[in-house]
Design a protein that fits this description.
The chain has seven helices and seven strands, in the order βαβαβαβαββαβαα. By secondary structure, it is α/β, with parallel strands linked by helices. The termini are far apart.
């Protein structure tokens, strides 16, 4: 079987990525810093995914795993390839495509169609802004898809993000499913329940993966800073690839930790909650 990690990413360009973290919108960072953070997140997601492939190839030696980076617009594909080459990322399992469409649903459908047309049996897709992704998340996602591949109609897998959406979603070649009406839902459903409703309507099995947060807002970033710090430490003990690029940028901009006012409230077990 051929298994594809489909990574949706913009080219890291100042003023065009993670603008909600910047003073251009409601954030606090200069656009240059947000761009550096996004670039680091992208590199970490790639490194973690390729490392997970190494472990999957040991347990599934007859299967093929590839990482497809989908970039839009098409004019940015070569620049993205150059970025990877400059970082010394040369892996035969890595290739680049571009996705097209008038809505995000259509862009997503186009990229999935390209991967299935090139021989993919399963696709696990995600964004590039998830430095808290772990090898275990990638492995668990593909193991779930392999299991669903035994079903006549396949099935979907999904991992929620922290804001009623999804951070990881995928399905098998035989699954009669797409993204239409999910990201631009006309009934007001958010992304996670929209996927579930589509799966219910098609009578498809779905497997739930542990949540993986992404980074869009300052609040997201504060949460991620704590996760990155934890993962940098715990990776010493579990032979996993940590989000080292993101940790480096956070250290360089003085955001290695998050502090809040000291908590001196007492919340006895037999009293009304005060915290």
């Amino acid at each position: 079987m051929k298994h594809t990690m489909l990574l949706f990413s913009k080219l890291p360009e100042v003023g065009r990525v993670k603008t909600r973290l910047t003073t251009l919108k409601d954030g606090t960072f200069p656009p240059e810093v947000a761009c550096d953070l996004f670039r680091a997140m992208l590199l970490d997601v790639v490194a973690i995914s390729l490392s997970a492939f190494n472990k999957l190839e040991r347990t599934h030696p007859e299967d093929e795993f590839e990482l497809v980076v989908s970039v839009a617009p098409a004019a940015n594909v070569e620049a993205m390839r150059t970025l990877f080459e400059a970082e010394g990322i040369a892996d035969e399992r890595l290739r680049f495509i571009t996705d097209a469409g008038s809505t995000f649903d259509e862009h997503y459908n186009d990229a999935f169609a390209q991967c299935f047309a090139s021989g993919s049996d399963t696709i696990l897709s995600m964004g590039a802004d998830m430095p808290a992704l772990t090898e275990a998340d990638v492995i668990r996602g593909f193991e779930a898809l392999i299991l669903l591949g035994e079903e006549d109609k396949g099935g979907i897998v999904l991992a929620p993000d922290q804001e009623m959406g999804v951070s990881i979603v995928g399905w098998t070649r035989r699954t009669p499913f797409d993204h239409t009406g999910v990201f631009y839902n006309q009934t007001g459903l958010t992304v996670l329940p929209a996927y579930i409703e589509k799966a219910k309507a098609a009578h498809l099995p779905a497997l739930y993966l542990p949540p993986v947060p992404d980074v869009d807002t300052i609040a997201d970033l504060m949460h991620t800073i704590t996760l990155v710090g934890a993962l940098m430490y715990t990776s010493r003990f579990d032979d996993s690839t940590p989000p080292a690029h993101t940790a480096t940028v956070l250290r360089e901009i003085g955001c290695e930790e998050v502090r809040i006012p000291p908590n001196d409230l007492v919340d006895p077990r037999d009293a009304i909650d005060v915290i």
